[in-house]
Amino acid sequence: MRLQHVPRAGRLLQGRGAWPRPRLNPGVRPCRDGMRESFDVAVVGGGVIGCALASELARRGASVVLLERERLAAGASYGAGGMLAPQVEAHGPGPLLELGLTARALFPDVAERLGGGFDLDLSGIVRVTFTEEGAAELRSRAEWQGRRGLQARILDAAEARDRVPGLAGDPRAALWVPDGQLDPARLTVALAEEAVRHGARVREGVPALHVGPGRVDTAAGPVVAGAVVVAAGAWSGPLTAAPGYPVKGQRVVLRLPGHPLRHTTWGDGCYLVPKAGGRVLVGATEEPEAGFDRRVTAEALARLLRAAAAVIPALAGAEVMEPWAGLRPGSPDGLPLIGPAPGLDGVWLATGHQRNGILLAPWTAHLIADALLEGAALPEACLPERFAVTGSGGAA
Q: Which of 12, 66, 260, 353 could disulfide-link to 54, CB 3.0 to 4.6 Å?
């Protein structure tokens, strides 16, 4: 096989607790020893983006190795709320909204292909506000999204309370949009399992130390590949000198058995994502100044808990199951970095997805696979060359 659109690649060598962490099925084992020496593509990063890439490329016949520094779904793909929310998060028309709408439409087919197992729910998200300023913003959002031809409906008080049982006080406005959510860690592992079924190798506990043309250096030895795709989340920048940076996010899981929350609900200062077993994920802070600090802080936790109880008062009596902090991969303009890494021949980037990594994962995998295997063009808005990037290939 010869990859397309890879500069100077040449001919390829052939050859913890209450919130459960999903594992690969016993019959689908990751490779730890005996990894062959060369591959069509080496994917660096075992989060949802990396696993989607490995799955897509392997299904199309490429030989793939996936290298993960810790374990699959160990970072943001584990702690994320799993929302598929291009409409509820959009502040206005623009490329990120359009990318998100395209990506959201892929998930029914992804669920069918994988046989479900990751709790896909596209029944909608409700955004509520208790302030007049927030109400004006929601009405404006409904108007411009309606002009775009999207479903976006302002709910009356009775509808809001029906969709969000236990809703507090007197909401000034509520907006429903057809977004959704899923279990991101289970999706990540399902994609990795699919990749393995199609011949990909998965190596956990193998950090990439250096990337360069046709090569990834690891503590376990070098990996040779026709192309290297760096999808290492917040650690992609240190590996490639890409202009991405970590954005710390903190969240907490609450458990309130019997609570009938059905829809993901955004309030003033938090979002509430219902999960199986009476659990509600409450998120999330956004701390770009924190660097690589992954500590849970009392101040952030208290703020999230107050905000959750302000939306649904019964949550004040819920059991706190799991505080968590992790790092999202940010970018200077809020759009992902997808395409060749300037200054690093044969190295590609798939990072910078910020809050939209789960949503954009299958779409990103399609784009990269089309470009690598068929020479297809990539969206200009996402090309890393839009920034002045000079690759260094240094250690993560």
A: 66
